């Protein structure tokens, strides 16, 4: 609970002088005044919001809006007195410092950052106020946390990362006799993800063949190397060096030509030629962030709260691509899909 503020007025007299004169002239008035003072103070304390949450967002997106809805749902259900103050850092770079100063000046009990951009801008400037993020991919590789078990700092949150073993199991369910999987990546952006994936693949009896790219110019040669390695499917990570609009179109075209199923990093890819993709439920991602914020408001340190991973995973399946590739998708897999493109 934040302290109420009582404004003082300079009368030109010392507190002792005021006290003595009031006692001598108006002893009854003093009692009434004191009674009113405490009554007003209690009323201010009762009406003042007990919980202040600063919400910081970047550029608008439907996913961010859905996540915020989920967060608000949890907070308002459990903290009826909560006050949410919204800030936007989708401004010219020279104005971000001022926005973050306004966030600090709002004296929040916790800060929600929605998206990687907002999380980066706020966490790099505020280290003494708890921060909970939402709709962030790869929080460890992005430098927001030292591990998924503990951030080691003032941050925790709900990541969008669908666990790698879940992704590989999904590929195994739609690609028969899968033993070798290819992936393109930029080591400076997603190197830690690939190293983790190699270990997961080995444990599942898969061989992950990785090819490095530094820009979209490297994609054709790297993809050709994967085909020459006889990969049976192409897996993907969200990597800006790999996936530009021209390179994405090239990857889709070549995987279809070679008959190699392509698992995209999100459902937008399945709409344009990928066979399958997994996404987190963005509204539930926001709910998870809200639940973590409640733990902080109850007194837990962010560093003691593990990063949450998606508990609702949605599959998008493109049956047109499956037919083109000659794949027979098992009925149970099709029934489990959140969305099927026919």
Q: Roughly how much helix do the residues carry, as a percent range? A: 40-55%
Beta-strand fraction estimate = 15-25%
CATH C-level label of the largest domain: Alpha Beta
What is the radius of gyration?
Answer: 27 Å
Describe this entry's structure for a reader.
With 342 residues, the chain is α/β, with parallel strands linked by helices. The chain folds into 2 domains: 51-161 and 281-304, Response regulator (Rossmann fold); 164-279 and 313-341, Rossmann fold (3-Layer(aba) Sandwich). Helices cover 44% and strands 18% of the residues. Strands 2-1-3-4-5 form a 5-stranded parallel β-sheet, with helices on both faces. A 4-stranded mixed β-sheet has the order 9-10-11-12. Helix 10 (267-270) links the parallel strand 9 and strand 10 (276-280). The longest helix is centred in the first third of the chain and has 21 residues, at 27-47. The chain is elongated and about 60 Å long. The two termini are 54 Å apart.
Topology:
Elements: H1 15-25, H2 27-47, E1 51-57, H3 62-78, E2 82-88, H4 96-105, E3 110-114, H5 116-123, E4 131-136, E5 155-159, H6 164-174, E6 180-185, H7 187-203, E7 207-212, H8 219-228, E8 233-234, H9 245-258, E9 263-264, H10 267-270, E10 276-280, H11 282-297, E11 313-318, H12 319-325, H13 331-336, E12 339-341
Parallel strand pairs: 1-2, 1-3, 3-4, 4-5, 6-7, 6-8, 9-10, 11-12
Antiparallel strand pairs: 10-11
Helix pairs in contact: 1-2, 3-11, 8-9
